[in-house]
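Bug #77: duplicate submission created two jobs. Keeping one. Sequence:
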Amino acid sequence: MTRRANTRTAAVGVWQAYLTTRAARTRDSRFLVQGARPISRALECRWPLETLVYRLGDPEPSPWARQLLDSSGVPSIGLVPEVMAELAEPSEPVPELVAVAVTRRPELEDFAPGTAADPATVVVIDRPSSAIRLGALIRSAAAFGAGGVIVTGSGVDHFDPQSVRASDGALFAVPVLRASGPAQVAAFRDRQRARGVATRIVGSDDRGGLAL
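Kept job's structure:
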């Protein structure tokens, strides 16, 4: 069912908080997805989407947006452009479509990628300070076939809209996990060894450092 909203609603304020506030995303286990490629990839990977928010009025939705609204099965809500603008990222134009997604936070203790015959490579990113660079690193990890990404320390949120967009949808295709520090990563490595899986761990940060 589609609800048309001509004025700002309470829901818009909640979604806007997901755009700017990590605490709100964590509290509600929700985040925003913007851009054709990330939204399409989320659907391809069967990531749970709660709502598709689309822009009313001119210009008409693109064929891509119309197809998603008509066939995705995700509930949709239309907002007039001036309200939709409140969900735009800084310095970005008014989006034609924004997805409200449900957060998945897999536990590192349950993460067991690869097998003895086909061990996985796992990328560890230490204390990322830039959401855009974190998203780009997740995209690169997925492109090179990594079995997962572990983010250590108190770095930026990988569900930040800038990180989601910069990942180009890779966030939905490769597991991204959080660890408090090296001890948790070492424990993961030891569990993999106990399984007989020789996992290759590649360590990096978002400032260009790299260690194998």
